[in-house]
Amino acid sequence: MIKVGIVGGTGYTGVELLRLLANHPQAEVKIITSRAEENVPVAHLFPNLRGHYDLAFSAPDADTLGECDVVFFATPHGVAQAMMPELMSRGTRVVDLSADFRIKDAALWSKWYGKEHGCPQLIGEAVYGLPELNRHLIADAQLVACPGCYPTATQLGFIPLLENNLVDPSRLIANAASGTSGAGRQASIDALLSESSDSFKAYASAGHRHLPEIEQGLRSVLNKDAGPLSLTFVPHLLPIVRGIHATLYATLRGNAGDLQALYEERYANEPFVDVLPAGSHPQTRSVKSSNMCRIAVCQPQQRDTVVVMSVIDNLTKGASGQAIQNMNIMFGFDETLGLNSPALLP
Amino acid sequence: MIKVGIVGGTGYTGVELLRLLANHPQAEVKIITSRAEENVPVAHLFPNLRGHYDLAFSAPDADTLGECDVVFFATPHGVAQAMMPELMSRGTRVVDLSADFRIKDAALWSKWYGKEHGCPQLIGEAVYGLPELNRHLIADAQLVACPGCYPTATQLGFIPLLENNLVDPSRLIANAASGTSGAGRQASIDALLSESSDSFKAYASAGHRHLPEIEQGLRSVLNKDAGPLSLTFVPHLLPIVRGIHATLYATLRGNAGDLQALYEERYANEPFVDVLPAGSHPQTRSVKSSNMCRIAVCQPQQRDTVVVMSVIDNLTKGASGQAIQNMNIMFGFDETLGLNSPALLP
Amino acid sequence: MIKVGIVGGTGYTGVELLRLLANHPQAEVKIITSRAEENVPVAHLFPNLRGHYDLAFSAPDADTLGECDVVFFATPHGVAQAMMPELMSRGTRVVDLSADFRIKDAALWSKWYGKEHGCPQLIGEAVYGLPELNRHLIADAQLVACPGCYPTATQLGFIPLLENNLVDPSRLIANAASGTSGAGRQASIDALLSESSDSFKAYASAGHRHLPEIEQGLRSVLNKDAGPLSLTFVPHLLPIVRGIHATLYATLRGNAGDLQALYEERYANEPFVDVLPAGSHPQTRSVKSSNMCRIAVCQPQQRDTVVVMSVIDNLTKGASGQAIQNMNIMFGFDETLGLNSPALLP
Amino acid sequence: MIKVGIVGGTGYTGVELLRLLANHPQAEVKIITSRAEENVPVAHLFPNLRGHYDLAFSAPDADTLGECDVVFFATPHGVAQAMMPELMSRGTRVVDLSADFRIKDAALWSKWYGKEHGCPQLIGEAVYGLPELNRHLIADAQLVACPGCYPTATQLGFIPLLENNLVDPSRLIANAASGTSGAGRQASIDALLSESSDSFKAYASAGHRHLPEIEQGLRSVLNKDAGPLSLTFVPHLLPIVRGIHATLYATLRGNAGDLQALYEERYANEPFVDVLPAGSHPQTRSVKSSNMCRIAVCQPQQRDTVVVMSVIDNLTKGASGQAIQNMNIMFGFDETLGLNSPALLP
Prior knowledge:
The structure is a homotetramer.
Chain A: E1 2-7, H1 12-21, E2 27-33, H2 42-45, H3 62-66, E3 70-73, H4 79-89, E4 93-96, H5 106-113, E5 127-128, H6 131-140, E6 143-145, H7 149-163, E7 172-178, H8 193-196, E8 201-202, H9 210-219, E9 231-237, E10 244-251, H10 259-266, E11 273-275, E12 293-298, E13 305-312, H11 316-330
Parallel strand pairs in A: 1-2, 1-3, 3-4, 4-6, 5-6, 7-9, 11-12
Antiparallel strand pairs in A: 7-10, 8-9, 10-13, 12-13
Helix pairs in contact in A: 1-11, 6-11, 7-9
């Protein structure tokens, strides 16, 4: 039984960590921090946890967090950067769900996040926690930067095409849509049910912070001579709570062969990537509450544009579930421990 | 063409007034106020109004408002009380959508609204703007206190029973449910789509501010010897934007006779109350965007409990539509002017 | 590991049984029947089950079902009645999720379900599977009639009041609302998203089939001299998928004492009934996907009407979860086995 | 006052025609047909129309329809083809909301709709009813083929780019999403609220019937030497009732100049196309119930992919509203008659 600490537990990734860890056979949450809700029982804020946790929120404290085997950061960007040197120096292993250590270029991070990076010396230590790419590095990592939600769905969709040099990397398009839980648990007018239900819109079309993260990840799987990579990424807001759907478009370089077989082979041994039969369309509800990514690939009218559809639950495979998957790998547990419940349907 | 002013136009009753008045043949909005959004075009805040209004929000000013023929208050409680004496002294006619002048007992108002009433001397002037009860008084009123949303649906449902002394007034129950727009256009965590969609709950079961308003209204139609009136009122929050559904229960005093005929006769000449055929169940979407109240009455298993179901659009018949209906009556227009579009379905 | 058979697996209670049993440590689904989908893999119909089941639907067959330790009926009414004699004679234990054996009076059953009861001789054998009332009888039962969804929420809410003779049983009111999954997985216009979303309505106010079941259950806990019991039950349709909310009203006979303590004591040892702190309002999402019933009780303005609010997930505690709870009791397992995941929130 | 007939009035385009025509000052619905609902009052099927229409459905009959000034077909494909010769020979003017006469190539129509075209001789007569392209032809047409919903949103978004030869027509992408009302008012499992709410998916990615219609329309505005045109079109199903959002991608041929000005100029005189300010994102609710199309254009990171976002209400500008706009043009009325209400928001 390993001891788990969670920094910043009052948001949706916090409660999702608690939900998933409630029955994890090898991990126990010992600390969950929040300055604003100090001493409030977690089950008071999140009634679904009544009967599952006796824990109350506490103020963050490096000493007590340092006694944990692993600490999850479920915080806004900037927080993990400030606390990381001390935790790392104690030997604590960390899974950071925020964007603080995802981008390898500190200047690029600063450009998109609007401030200086607070801990550039540890960026090199961080392993990008997409198990389907970096499983072996994750196993030995002290610091794992857990991917964003859009980046997870988008990279898993594009990887087989790019690894095999089948498409023009300079004309990639990701049309993605997310449920409102992606915007977090914070008061706002735009995210009111009265404003965002029964409606649909794009946002951040001029540039979303996940763009550099996705481009960095996709470049990492390109062949050397594949040429420059450029992605047009347009996120949209869905009137649902959970779920990301990415519809990906790429231009084939020539005869692509059997794309269905390509995807099935690439992900044959992945416990959390499910390639659907040819002709399928994944729906977000088929992964709700689960750590699964379901993918379908097609080539409409046999023209030269390939379309990939990829769905995840943004709070699970897109955040807290993937964080636990990383923890399982880091501690040598079965990778699916605590993550093998079927999605909730209907 | 009368000149209309709106005080406090950035909320949902404000935009609903603008939507309904956009094509009113006898009224033109000249002023709409907001301190927070001063100089911002209304069509910038409410994109549905693009092309319909050139107006921008202005700071509230008694001089310019005083030039209007009628001023609507679409403000939180307390605001109308402060501005009313000056406007009234200029002879301006006012329709107040807030709760400021609905309750005749200033002490009772204070108890439920948690502060001293700011203008007790004008309470007596105010006519309670439920046209189905007070049409003739409204016609001559200078100040109309427009009923709340729950009170409108609940009173219209109970009135025929109480006017005819058919039920025990001491055991009335109103189980009501409202869409989220009833909570207004203000940032909050509880009203996020992520929190309130795909869920249902009661709230304020210990006592909602609309309770004294409803009880006052129902008492006003009781026969003299009917005995004391007591209502149990439990509101619920629906995961929809617009709509109120009230399910009303009362104990019959004896053989009630033909309740269907009673309701049909009571509302035969009412343009905005529609009694559905026996066996019907009104649905909130059947009145969405319209000023109609639809009602059905039944007596399950011919036992002694009568059940009435009443639906309105909380922003229309429950607020801004009824306010315009009052305006039409005050100025001698056809009562349905600007209010005769069918509900939006589907 | 016991062997489980499911008759009628293509509906929502069927897929919910499969979801909950996927990781049950003591039960394995061996057979799932459907004539219409014979030979179709269950994971084809329900994509959330991909990777969790290799099973395909088969035609119902008494021989193979008879080899199971327990058979669940997740069928429309009438089916279980037809197959029950043969299964019972083989000694197979049965949990019937349908209404076939809930009502003890065959004539009353016929009146509400519109046909002759097909197996009146076994009605006496059936134990009504509400563990909070009948735990010891369930342990030894061969045939358990699993309660309906509305009856579960309503009975659990009223039981403490009626057991203690605190309210007038002749004036009970249950105002209840259900998500659309309660209507089952069958094509209809009324249940289209285009028809039932963004709306709310009552239905079956003249009489719903769950009324006699609820009244029978409530009568069973009444004191001998409590007098006749009569319930007014009005169900409503919520624009959500899962969840039942019952708002219950009863007239107190006198000083009721500490209702909060009464409820807390009554359910202190119940693993699946959670009495919320005074002043709370249970929300349906707090039990989504879980077997929990959450209850709050209040007495508005200290008047003589008590209000109880009770929420369950209609597919879990209202059907398949409760069925598994019954199975756990019948086979001597820990009652919470396979049922201890927190609800999904947000 | 012209006389209007509607063939096939029980679907969503039928009730939307009735809603919009209820207050049209120059048109009166005299006949509405349905074999299945013969003699049923329209207000019985559509409760929002209570008080607005005394009309009942009648069986379709060429004689009585022939007495109308204009007949709308709100029917599944195939029906208008069968009745068209007789109506046309009587001189009746027709607006066909179905797909029967939209595609100029009868063989192409047959390929996508799976049967022989029933009236190829009249295809040449039909004017494609997109007023922003064909206003003058519509004015004189006897038969107008009203565009589909996806084609309307998509064409209005692409037209300025293609007319000005700014993009490569061989690599167009339309990622579109529709509310469920687009699937019509017919019983199905997939369109149940229980199945389609709280979820999102693509469908028909291998080829949707609107693809050839869109490609035909886009080709019609291309410069002669623009080269071949090819569109990848992927529709998605939104968990909302009304609304289409099209996100369009095209590769710029070179320096595109001021795209914002281009769009504003192109649509400056169009009453039902609203180009939003630079940086905006149109939301479907901003056009709900209205005939408006709102469009925004952007060029992310100044790279060579242009993104256009276009929203309409699929039942209004995407069907019945556009049909009435066509009628207004055909009869010389003000084009906005009956169509100038603001969208419903919130």
